[in-house]
Specification:
The chain contains 1 helix and 12 strands. The chain has 200 residues and is mainly β. Strands 1, 3, 4, 6, 9, 10 and 12 form a 7-stranded antiparallel sheet that branches. It has a 5-stranded antiparallel sheet with strand order 2-5-11-7-8, with no helix packed on it. Strand 9 and strand 10 form a beta hairpin. The chain is globular.
């Protein structure tokens, strides 16, 4: 009799946990936020979909950085940045920045997420980091960076891909933002790519 009661309690507990997981996304994973804005590079006429380099905002970067739309390297359109850190191999933060100005302010922003693709063979030293700064006009709303972007998904021709998430929570609408990759003692020279870019 006691065994039956215990068995029933176990079954009820398992059922309750199952409902809890289902309601919270399951598997212990955090719920993803709603996409507030995303960039689609599939339109050739749109070019870089509004992103542009801002040399006046560079930090300790003495190389070149050029943005373009690339739909040939991986057979799908992506944002491409050709960058050269070889003049800043002793810098712990060498940072070219690109900028986005929104036609309509984006409300409820919590983070920016994107796939970052690079080729490890284009560098013999250092690593790459990333940073985002959001604004409303000239008022800074949020700033955060991530150290050492790790990419493990292998792509053709020696490239690797990793997802980058930069927290940029703000209750004030965002009307412009800066996004950068930064070289840490890096001699990376070559293209890097951004894909699946979105604000959540």
């Amino acid at each position: 009799m006691k065994k039956n009661v215990v068995l029933r309690l176990v079954i009820l507990l398992i059922a309750a946990l199952a409902v809890s997981c289902a309601s919270s996304g399951g598997g212990g994973k955090a719920n993803t936020g709603a996409i507030k804005y995303k960039w689609d590079f599939s339109d050739p006429a749109a070019g870089t979909a509004g992103w542009f380099m801002v040399p006046d905002e560079y930090w300790d970067f003495h190389g070149t950085a050029v943005l373009s739309r690339d739909d040939k390297t991986f057979g799908k359109p992506m944002l491409r940045m050709d960058v050269d850190f070889t003049k800043d191999t002793k810098s712990e933060w060498s940072e070219p920045k690109m900028k986005m100005q929104f036609k309509k302010p984006v409300e409820g922003v919590s983070k920016i997420t994107f796939d970052f693709i690079y080729n490890p063979s284009f560098s013999k030293s250092g690593c790459i980091k990333s940073k985002v700064i959001t604004y409303n006009g000239k008022k800074q709303l949020a700033q955060t960076h991530i150290d050492d972007i790790f990419a493990f998904d292998e792509l053709p021709n020696g490239y690797v891909k990793g997802e980058v998430m930069l927290i940029a929570a703000s209750t004030t609408p965002v009307d412009n933002m800066l996004l950068s990759i930064a070289g840490y003692l890096s001699d990376y020279k070559g293209p890097v790519f951004f894909d699946n870019m979105r604000l959540e």
